[in-house]
Automatic annotation (TrEMBL):
This is Isocitrate lyase/phosphoenolpyruvate mutase family protein. It comes from Streptomyces fuscus. One of its GO terms (molecular function) is lyase activity. It comes from the Bacteria. Keywords: Lyase. Pfam families: PEP_mutase (PF13714). The lineage of its organism: Bacteria, Bacillati, Actinomycetota, Actinomycetes, Kitasatosporales.
Length: 253
């Protein structure tokens, strides 16, 4: 079992924050997070491209190259693998592993189950040690059909997924039921209006991702600061100094 896989088996959920650049990843690692993920929304937004449209393969690999040698375990959000050809997805996963990534989040977008299962199998063949977190969008994009959710997760587990991810699922009873019904670690996306981290721990969840939340809050804080100064208000809250941000860059060296 790899060190990243072991983080899913400690008895408490792996709280996985999602970074969008070198500075955000290093700052999170400095706060003691042993693993950091990327977020496809931030990668796409930073490049002026749409998320979930297979438009950011180069940007995703470039960020992985930047972060893969950092003092943390890196998991990469790769949308649906940027292709419907399993061999191409497997090759992309091999490239991610080669630059230091230890995990891969792969979403089905409610596409055909056999296609997504084939992608998972191809990734495990090309990069056996890469932890594949197989995401189904039945709750994120669909109606939350539990039978379809289980059908998809079962196929993905059989294809070799190391973990399964159901973003958009916030009902405690349904989360607890899924924990009992799947054979691999269950990942839930944290929601400010959903169960707390402590509650998710009690439900038996193995991994809690923050997704794009940190990036979206950072954008909101930047706009709030600028508009506040324009209105004559002093900025509130803490901010790293220039020297502290510079130190993050030196840490990479």
């Amino acid at each position: 079992m790899t060190p990243f896989a072991r983080l899913h088996r400690t008895g408490a959920p792996l709280l996985l924050p999602n970074a969008w650049d070198h500075a955000s990843a290093l700052a999170l690692a400095a706060e003691g997070f042993p693993a950091v993920a990327t977020t496809s929304l931030a990668v796409a937004a930073g490049a002026g491209l749409p998320d979930g449209a297979s438009a950011t393969q180069d940007e995703t690999l470039r960020l992985a190259l930047t972060l893969g040698s950092g003092p943390f375990l890196l998991s990469v959000d790769a949308e649906g693998g940027f292709s419907d050809d399993p061999d191409e997805v497997g090759e992309f996963a091999r490239q991610l592993a080669a630059v230091g990534a230890v995990g891969l989040n792969l979403e089905d977008g409610l596409g055909p189950v056999p296609v997504h299962a084939a992608k998972i199998a191809a990734v495990k063949a090309a990069a056996p040690d890469l932890f594949v977190n197989a995401r189904t969008d039945t709750h994120w994009l669909g109606e939350g059909d539990e039978r379809d959710t289980l059908r998809r997760l079962d196929a993905y587990q059989q294809a070799g997924a190391d973990g399964v991810f159901v973003p958009g699922l916030t009902d405690p009873a349904r989360i607890a039921a899924l924990v009992r019904q799947v054979q691999v670690p269950l990942n839930i996306l944290y929601s400010p209006t959903g169960p707390t981290l402590a509650h998710l721990t009690d439900l038996g969840v193995h991994r809690v991702s923050l997704g794009s939340l940190l990036y979206r809050r950072a954008l909101a804080a930047a706009v709030e600061t600028a508009t506040g100064i324009r209105a004559g208000r002093s900025p509130r809250g803490a901010a790293p100094t220039y020297a502290e941000v510079q130190a993050l860059a030196r840490a990479a060296d």
